[in-house]
Structures are given as C-alpha cells and as structure tokens.
Amino acid sequence: MPVTAVPLYLPGASPVHRLGAGPKLLLLLATGVTLAVWRSPWQVAVALGAVLLLYAVARLPLRVLARQVVALAWVAVPLLAFQWVFASWRTGVGVVGSFVTLVLLAGLVTLTTRTTAMVDAVVRVCGWLRKFGVDPERVGLLLALGIRSVHVVLGLAQEVREAQHARGLRSSPRAFAVPLIVRSLRHADRLGEALSARGVDD
Amino acid sequence: MLSSRDLSLVAIFAGVIAALGLVPAVSPFGGAVPITAQSMGIMLAGAILGARRGALSVLLFLALVAIGLPLLSGGRGGLGVFAGPSVGYLVGFPVAAFLVGLLTERVGRPYRVHLGVMANILGGVLALNVLGIIGMAAVLGVSLVKATTLAAVFMPGDVVKAVLTAVVAAGVHAAYPGLIPARREQPATPDRVSA
Amino acid sequence: MPEIRVASVSHSFGDGATRRPVLRDVDVTLTEHRIGVVGANGSGKSTFARLLNGLVHPDSGTVTVDGRDTVRDGREVRRRVGFCFTDPDAQIVMPTVAEDIAFGLRRRGLTKDEVRARTQGALTAYGLEGHADHPAHLLSGGQKQLLALASVLVTDPDLLVLDEPTTLLDLRNAEMVRRLVDGLSQQVVLVTHHLDLLDGFDRVLVFDDGRVVHDGTPADAVAAYRSLVAR
Questions:
Q1: CA nearest B27 in A: which residue?
Q2: What tens digit of pLDDT does each residue of C33-56 get?
Q3: Model pTM?
Q4: Which domain holds residue A171?
Q5: How far apart are CA C63 and CA C82, in angstroms?
Q6: ipTM for the assembly
Q7: Which residues of C touch A155 (CB under 8 A)?
Q8: B4-177 belongs to CATH 1.10.1760.20
Q9: How much is the CA Rg of chain B, to the nearest whole Å?
Q10: Where do runs of H (alpha helix) occur along A38-166?
C-alpha cells in the first residue's frame, strides 16, 4: 500500500474555495489565538460547529472529513484521557476540542486553497521580511519544492521497502534509512541540476 | 543565498523527515504498533546536511506541516499542532538539527559514530527536551517537574534513536561523501571558503 | 539554426588522486537541425550535453551558442537552450502539472494572462489538458517525461538538449517522445542509447573515452558505434 498521506487541494467553486488564501490563513490564525484565550467547553463547541458548517459550505465529501477525524482521534483521545486524569474534564474538552477545531480548520484551508495560492500568501508575508535578507521568491520556490519532494521521497521509500522485501531482508531502521537517504541525496543532485538548467541560479 | 543544490538538498530532506515519520521503520507486534523514526529525521538532517542546511530543511518541514500537510508521525499536521502540547518540541526541532549539525561539522569527515552519538544526544535529546518540556508545561498547565517526569518516559528511546541516527549517518556519509567538511580542510583557510 | 561552437574543450571531474578526465580536447561546430550523440556510459556524452547550456563549465576551451559564451552569458544561454534530463521525476519541480509548466515562464516579463495562456497552450499541445491541476506524482512515467518536455518547450527555446530522455521509459512512451522530438522545428541535440531514435537525424557524433571518434550520418555513426562496442 503506497503511503500518500497528503491531502492536496480539492477543486471546487464554493465561497470557501473562492475566498483568498490570505483571509483564510488570517481566519485560522485568529481562531488559534481566540481558542488559546477562550476555551470553555461551550466556546469550543461553537468554534467546532462553525468549522463543521464551513466544511458543509465548502461541499467537501463527508469521507474527507471522516478521514481527518479518524487521524485526529489517535492523538485526541489519549490527550483527553490525560487531561481528565491530571486536570479536569473541562480542561480536557477545552484543550482537546480547541486542538481538534484548529486542525480541522487548517485541513479545510488546505483542502480549499490551491497550493499556489497558499505559497503566494506565505511569499507575500515574507515580502515584509525582505529587510532581513529573506528573498520571498526563494521561500515560495522552497515551499513548492518541499511539497513536491514529500511525494518524491515517499515514492523512493516505497521502492526501498519493495527492494528489501524482494531480497527477503529483515526490516531494521538502518536497512531502511540508509538506502532511502542515499537515494534521496542522489535525487537531490539531479533536482539541483534541473533547477540550474531552468535558470534558478541566474 | 541558497544555490540550486542547497535548495534541492533542503527540500528533499524535508521529504525524508516526512517519510521517516509516515512510513513505519519497524513494525513490532505484527505491525499493530508502527514505530516511526521522525525524531531520527530531525537529528539526521543536522548529522547529514550540517547546521545551516539541516536546520533549514527542518524549518521547511515545519512550514509544510503549518500550511496543512499532515506530515508529523501519526499523520498530524496543520497549524493546529502548534497549539498542542508538543509545540515546544516542534520549536526545538530546528534548534536540535542546527546543534547536531554544528557539532557534526566540528568533528568533520570522516564521520565517527561515537562522536556522532554525543552530538545527537547533546543537540537532539538534551537541547530538544529542554525546549519540549518548557512547551509541554506551558500548554498543559503543569509544573516543569511534572512535565519532565512525563518526558522522561521517552528519553531512553530518544537515546537509542540518537545512537541509531549516528549509525545511519555513518552509513550515509560513507556512501555519499562530501556533505560535511573533511577534518584536514577545517582549520582556518578563510580565503578559500568565500571562493 | 543556431551555431553551437565547442572549441578545444577539455574537462575533468574530481581532484587529486580521483581526478578523471571526461572530455579530451573536443572541437566541433554544430549547425544542423537534428544532431545525435551516442557513446558508452562514461564516454563523456552527458558532460558534452551539459556544456551546451552552461551546466558544466569547461576546465579549458570555450563553448558558445550563437556567439554567446555559456560561462560568461550563462543566464542568456539558459534562456535559449532548453534541457531535458533522463529522470522525469527529478526535473519536475512544482507540485502540480500546470504550475510546473508555468514555472519556466517566470521572470520573463510576461503578464499573468500571458503566462496562463501559454501554459494552457502547452497543456493542450502535449496532451496534458486533462491533468492541469493534478499532482505531478500521479502521472505515469511517460506523462512525467511529456510534462518535463512541455515545461521546457513552453519557453520556446532555440535549441533543445535531451540527455537520454527515453532511457527510463517503456517502448510505447519512448515512441511518444520520439514523435514529439521529430516534430520539433527547433535545433535538437539528442544524447541517447536508443539508436533507432536517430533515424532521419542530420548528424551523429560518437563519443569514446572523452573524444569524438566518429562524426557523420546516422547510418555511418551507428555502424562505427557498433564496431566500437564489439571491439
């Protein structure tokens, strides 16, 4: 089973899709700050409800939401139990609820925002850091390359796995990591060359 | 200014950190409890790429997580994780990679496993846990002592990973030399560095 | 066609004990439409290809494309010389198909609309219109190489250099790439192990141990290469 745990943009024409990346990221940031301050159970419930409503407005398939919830449960349930034991259920619901709300909202932003738009927003923010020697265009390129590289390395990881199984090798972290990293570095050489050829150093 | 090669090394290693977190490295108990190697990925970034590129690749990895890719082990991602109890560890990741890289560069090539283990423990276990524990105490609203007790459970595992990281780094440097400076090249030749 | 002038070029990799010459005093002028380059692994042909857009700076000698020195005017040369590599995965740099095609058009003084129009044109021309927003990793190997070619050709280069573009492809996809290359009006330098790709080429260079050992028509060159391999 290939590992592709990356939910990329799901095309759509909903108002959530059409809203700019900047406003969406600002909303996410504002929600994060708000939930850090106000996190009583009912406040968190309102926020969570609002996020779920946005999922409905965005007309995303239910299984997309379900997949995220399942992934979150692995962290959320033990965290809730921990808070319940060491603090109170109110704190637990507050901490875990705000965490789940934020992660779902972040997921919504990703699902409804084209990667380019997301990267452009980050690049705009980095424009303010130009004074400190940050080159916004490089930052954008690096983010795009990073997204692409995740898929490339996951593909390489799959190949390494299959090569090991084919040769009947027992899997150990060393036998997995060394060939994976060496292959990745060789790939980076070729990628660097392709970037040069496409004028990135010019 | 990062060259094309630096850009691609930084980007690809962010992918390596993600892959080490998402693909189970070992699956004991019949695969029921996959143990991933993401924290090894953080140390490996420094141990293989050096301080600057290593820290940058970890920063890029965190940026990808922040814009919503679920790349942390267990498939977590999005800005939400920076609100969780592990925020101190996340902030500590690039610091740890930088320190491991700095110490690894100081030792230089050829890579020595025992010195690598020390670099990994200093940067990847001690420094990382100091920041991690402070973050955990702040988010969970517990004392530093209690947070340290919680973190202590994972430390033996962290030390094992520090050793494994050094073994892996030695293997990688042997198969792909040239990423960290050779020992004899190191002492002051500043005129060559700028070339 | 542009004039490619490779003048007394020698080049080595590594230093000290590991120093290994890869090109020895190569001297050719290429003005033909389609030029093939063949030779065994390690014969220097890939390094030769990389000279043509300044990816490799020669240790000695000069390389010019239409009078532009690939070292001094590297930026201008790379704008005019497109390069297609062997591994399609390593040359796709952006996450989605349309973004990768548009990437080559940045910093060329084009408006957003012009970039969009040219990207759309390339997507249609190379049969990728159904994949515009698809992540590049979901494409097949052949589609990836098509995308790599589309991303280079959208910049409308005067010269296209291809370094073993079909080596990692199956027969059907290799045929697709061959048809695409055959239809190009630009000058083409094609490095390959697939000798049948060179049918109808104007000139073929055979490399051995860093030297051009044969220079002629495809039929002659292939015969020379075969006798070289048999030796």
A1: A171
A2: 999 999 988 899 999 999 999 999
A3: 0.83
A4: 135-197
A5: 16
A6: 0.89
A7: 89, 137
A8: yes
A9: 17
A10: 41-57, 62-86, 89-112, 115-127, 136-166
